[in-house]
Write a sequence for this structure.
């Protein structure tokens, strides 16, 4: 059944109002009709079954039939911090990490980031990223759309890391601690505290500098190895996310 996210203020008084591109998609692409049923979510965890009552290519009004269980979100919140990669790779990271179950995606700038950062164009790009996340969340039948942050500086990211219960960064030169070992500890009875939020930090194509490694460790971010194979920058976050959710029992673990 087709699923759409709408702002919370459009899901009130037993009505769901869909406008813009989504209304056009329903009317012209899906060729919906009065009486068809759809799933609507406010993006904050409230999901309902609704029946289309009014329809045109600019606005669709549906009557709420019943609330639906909001059980598609993982109990553990995983944040993916991704140093801006080249080309359109960030779009792939956002799309796939949303499908897998990330709750927050944080682009950031590091010393070896090669992408030119153009502040005047950033708002347009951020809106595109958020649209990609919304569409991926709809496709994956999620109850919430992950937060897509505006790009942070390295210093801002280090400060944001303190908000997570555990923070890890993927480091190809780490020879001791592996991601798997660290996750088993975090979700075991030996852990110092329950872990509900995990931050995974992924560097740029050229990797982290020695200075960044030292600053990350000083901020409490733990370096971990992803294994004997070197992953591409846009792949590491997806693998790390899947590993966290598996170890937390969210993917059959």
């Amino acid at each position: 059944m087709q699923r759409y996210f709408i702002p919370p203020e459009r899901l009130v008084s037993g009505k769901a109002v869909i406008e813009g591109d989504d209304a056009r998609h329903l009317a012209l692409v899906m060729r919906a009709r009065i009486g068809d049923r759809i799933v609507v979510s406010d993006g904050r965890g409230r999901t309902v079954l609704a029946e289309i009552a009014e329809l045109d290519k600019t606005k669709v009004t549906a009557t709420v039939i019943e609330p639906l269980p909001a059980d598609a979100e993982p109990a553990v919140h995983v944040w993916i911090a991704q140093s801006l990669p080249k080309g359109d790779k960030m779009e792939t990271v956002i799309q796939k990490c949303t499908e897998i179950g990330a709750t927050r995606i944080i682009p950031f700038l590091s010393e070896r980031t090669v992408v030119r950062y153009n502040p005047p164009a950033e708002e347009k790009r951020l809106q595109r990223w958020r649209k990609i996340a919304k569409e991926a969340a709809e496709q994956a039948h999620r109850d919430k759309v992950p937060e897509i942050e505006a790009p942070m500086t390295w210093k801002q990211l280090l400060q944001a890391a303190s908000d997570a219960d555990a923070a890890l960064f993927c480091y190809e030169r780490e020879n001791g601690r592996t991601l798997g070992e660290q996750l088993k500890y975090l979700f075991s009875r030996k852990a110092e505290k329950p872990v509900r939020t995990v931050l995974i930090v992924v560097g740029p194509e050229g990797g982290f500098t020695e200075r960044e490694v030292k600053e990350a460790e000083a901020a409490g971010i733990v370096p971990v190895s992803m294994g004997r194979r070197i992953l591409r920058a846009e792949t590491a976050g997806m693998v790390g996310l899947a590993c966290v959710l598996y170890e937390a029992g969210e993917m059959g673990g």
In short: The first helix runs from residue 21 to 29. The mean pLDDT is 92. The two ends are 28 Å apart (CA to CA). Helices lie at 21-29, 89-100, 119-139, 154-160, 179-186, 210-218, 233-247.
